[in-house]
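no rush on this but wanted to send it before i forget. theres a chain ive been looking at and ive put its sequence and its fold in token form underneath. i want to understand how the tokens follow from the sequence so walk me through it. thanks a lot i owe you, the record is right below:
>
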Amino acid sequence: MRSLAKFSEKLRVVEATRRPDLQAEASGQWGPALVFGRLWEEQGLPAIMDGLSSERRFEFDVERACFAMALQRLCAPGSDLQGSHWVSTVDAPGFDKLALQHFHRTALFLAEVRHDMEAALRWKDLDLFSLAQLARAIGVPHSFGPRLQ
């Protein structure tokens, strides 16, 4: 069985990691960033963040800083200082360019745009059924056209 397994690419990779002359240059967590990154994208948060920050002149990627802060609060809760160190252990696009000052500026930005962001998320998740329920709740008639009796 072992002689056949030598043709397996997976076994060759595993065996190669056991060599004493092979050293890892870096390691990082990537699982949480992949899972929560997918949810982040599906909720449309990158577009919302880009829209809310378009008038500002940030010299860093605010959306990536927001995602890093959210992910850090989920995986390793702590301060912005702890978060600035934690992101160096995570392998996610844009995290390598973030510094402590970016977390502070992003926190201030989020405090300013919180209500707009929440409103954008609320409207994003409404579908026609939800809109019909909302219309009934606030007393909007079913039809704006003439009533046939």
